[in-house]
Amino acid sequence: MRPMRLRILFTVILMALAGCATPPVPPPTATPIATPISATIPPATPTSQPTQTAVIPTPLPAEPTPLPVDPFPLISQDSLFATLEDLTAIQPYSGWRNSATEGEQEALDYVEQRLGDMEYLEGLGLELERQSCRVFNSTELWETRLHLTVHGQEVEVPADGIRGQRDDTSLALRFDSDGALNDGARNPVVAEGPVVLARSVDEILAEQADLEGRVVFLDYASIAEVLVGRQQAVWTANNLLSLEPAGVVLVTRFSNQPGESHGAFVGDYNPFIWLGVGPESPAVPILYARLEDLTVAGIKDWDDLSQIEAARLTWDADVFAPGTSGNLVARIPGTDDSRAVILGAHIDSPNCPGAMDDGSGSAVLLEIARVLDAAQIQPPVDLVLVWFGSEELGHYGSAHFAATHQELLDRTLAMLQIDTLTHPLDGIDADLTLSTWSYGRLGDERLTWPDYLTEIAERRDVRTVPVNSYKLQSDNIVFVGFDVPNANLIYMGPEMEDLGPIHYAAHLHNPYDTVELAREVGDVLEQMARVALAAALETGWDDPELRVSPRPDQRAVFVGTHTEALLMTPGGFADLGQTLAMEGLDVDLIPYGHAPAAVDLKDAALVVVLPVIDLPVQGESGLYDDAWSEEEIATLEAYVANGGLLVLTSSAHRLKLYNRMYDYNEDWRDVNALARRFGVSYEFETLPYRLILVEKGSHPLVEGITYLEVMEKNGASLTMSEGLVLAQEDGKVMAGLVDYGDAGGQVLALADVGMLGNASNTASRNLTFWQNLARYARSR
Ligand SMILES: [Zn+2]
Hints:
Blueprint: H1 3-19, H2 77-88, H3 102-116, H4 119-124, E1 127-135, E2 138-150, E3 153-158, H5 169-172, E4 189-198, H6 201-207, E5 215-219, H7 225-228, H8 230-242, E6 247-252, E7 286-290, E8 308-320, E9 323-332, E10 336-346, H9 359-375, E11 381-388, H10 396-404, H11 406-410, E12 412-418, E13 431-436, H12 448-459, E14 464-468, E15 486-492, H13 502-506, H14 515-519, H15 522-542, E16 554-559, H16 574-582, E17 585-590, H17 598-601, E18 604-609, H18 630-641, E19 645-648, E20 653-656, E21 660-664, H19 672-675, E22 680-683, E23 691-694, E24 707-709, E25 717-720, E26 724-729, E27 732-740, E28 745-750, H20 767-779
Parallel strand pairs: 4-5, 5-6, 6-7, 10-11, 10-12, 12-15, 13-14, 16-17, 16-18, 18-19, 19-28
Antiparallel strand pairs: 1-9, 2-3, 2-8, 4-8, 9-11, 13-15, 20-21, 22-25, 23-24, 23-26, 26-27, 27-28
Helix pairs in contact: 1-15, 2-9, 6-8, 9-15, 12-15, 16-20
């Protein structure tokens, strides 16, 4: 049956259902599945009266299979909030579902177990896949306890620890209680002493208080970066620690007022994460507590804190580099399994309850599965639900998913991320926004998928607003470079960003991102689920034209065999991927850990070899060390010998979204094992250039270009035994083309992989170069 006809049939049935008072009872099914909930719920039309004695409508033609029922009325806030209660009960005040921790894994276990109970979906052939991947670093909070002595009585109150800096492990080690990287032994540190209260560090400094052996309770508002600025916040935090207190407790308080603190970023981005440990600045226990949670000790207000006679902090945390994260992928087979729709959400929370961010999206995905199971509806095309890990560390789970599901991406109609429900501060307007990264930099500004979603949401009485944004959004962003129509669903408004990072005005990344707060915007959450369900079902029925790019007829293959930094692949090269797609190239990636096979490269118009980079940091490289094997080199060499076009790259640093430079890449020299086969050698001296001059008229690859953009101090100049210089600066060759073999094979050596990436806020100067590259690859 053609999808369009199925949809019409379905609509007719729904209209019939809506027009009558009692839905027809489905004929008995072969297996005794519980009565579909739909049989007992009132129809969708609000004016109709639920009754047991209504007139039987015109009989529908007999159907051999159970009648589909409208799943939309089955979406339930009770069910959504029950899931949120469960998710926020995981590792409470002990990191919650913090990225790449036990809590994150427990949350994935929970989702997996819930899906395991869905009998109808199981009967359809539901497939569950648990994925594992590494992240740069992670902080596991084993134990964070706070005991207060008030009126001679000791009382325990809830408190959480701090997560270390996600991209600098030496800074992150401040938040490892024993200071030993990659040691997971439980060995809590205990700090106790009389209490010093301060609304600001200035008070302490003015009093020249002696903090030795004392625990400081500090009003977090005084060092909240969003209120006082990073420089001031870090300076203050540093001054506090230089007085060597025994421990620090950051106290937060709820507020919904713009301009006031509510603990934004206290657990993951407070100023202490920028202070390294050293002899001058030892790693003392730092915990955070909500003032509201101190009522068990009789403390209701800031002034009551003076009743605390002493405090005892127990802190056991370990930093791992790399850390381990993962995804849960659920594939519900559609009637047409040659096409798919992907719905995503991130399961991890930024070291806070994360009821909204992104418990809301995670719960919506489960709700979609639940209502399809209850209504016994098979989706028209494959429905892939993905709970991504470690979005909050930089899109690790989604980048890993995209890298490892290349075949799926090629048959995916569109991807929708649901991240996130928010609770706007007083006076701030918000809409259900569908943001995407359009092809506007390549001349096509259409927002096909958000526009289509807006249309189908309207059918379900939900208003959404399509938005174009060349910014980090959420996990949908890693799909851009693979030319998959994508969008993120978020409750936000333009005014939110006037107050700083959107998280502040939206109540994200703070200890009040709780179920309680989410309930106040429960209707919005329900609407989000309606949009997601419409995306899951109607997209397959309607089969709208969503791709802006032409149908690809040739392939560009990226070889990421030794590229463990997953955003140094098309998953992080949004504009490059779009450019290649617009030139008719299908972008495929051979993921980290998978050796290129001759068959993978066969017929590829272009093969791009990505830098060797593994995640262990310098000095920890004993864990494992990536390098090209002889066999892999032989496979790549054979591709060129057979006439292929191979692009070589290197990178002195790890890069993340987008062309942001992080730690030194101790593996960058490993490119030479491959490059030397072609008479090319990378010379490892970091060069201060940003723009390099193109050799005018030298080759179609650099036609219409004066300068190529490189990242300062990230490239390595090249020496070539023979070949054509395309661009150089001060006599240093930064791009060159070498002929190889008798079949017309060529190697394009680029000094810096950053030449393929782009900043998020501005279009790359190299856009024309990428267009030339695609056109040249196609024309050879
Ligand atoms: Zn989020």
